[in-house]
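This part of the workshop introduces the protein records we will be handling. As an example, a complete record with its sequence and its structure tokens follows.
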Amino acid sequence: MASSTAPRRIRLGILTPSSNTALEPLTYALITSLNAHLPSTTITAHFSRFPVTQISLSPDGLAQFDLAPILAAAQLLAHAEVDIIGWSGTSAGWLGFSQDTKLCEEIKRATGIKATTSILALNKALELWGVKELGLVTPYLVDVQEKIVENYKGIGVEIGEGMERHLKVAKNTDIADIGEETLDGMVGDVVEGKVDAVTTFCTNLIAAQRVGYWEAKYGVPVFDTVTTVVWDMLRECGVDAKGVKGWGMIFDKD
């Protein structure tokens, strides 16, 4: 009698800003593609929210990313016995990358579950691809954008004049209303700055599904922050997703 082997099951626990309406549908769409590509693996995503309503450097805006509420949300994901926890957000871009390193350490300490983030994952991709000049597309305010540029310069990644575009939006629910036509123009503008890669840097931008189009048009990798965290979570779980189609060159390298 022939025996059958059940697919390996991977549960991804994803921390989500409370006002985000983009990352969950995009993550589900990506995971549908991954499951079609990996018939011996079944991947599911499970979400936990904590309060985030605005993106700014105001005291209230910065306080949203204090560790306590994020850790509380992570502990709820631990109840589902997820294999890894990912923060699908970009706050370390302006708070400093060490903020996400500390968050992952605290999640592991509190839950016993390893963790990663959109930004730590993005930075791994930039290193893997040898990116020194980065195109940055965000919806953010001027001062937030400036902090992101400064933090990347600190790790040797230049975002020079002509390599960034931003829309000066603070209210998070407004970000998900930004359309593909606007994003097409922003990505096209930063590519003209002769960059090694582009990042669409905000998990409430509906951009991940457009990455394949931009890469085919411009011939440079585009790293979307909804995708980067899933990519790195799978790598940390030992899942080889190389070759999955429709979500960018990030899946073309080991």
About this structure: The longest helix spans residues 23-37. The two ends are 37 Å apart (CA to CA).
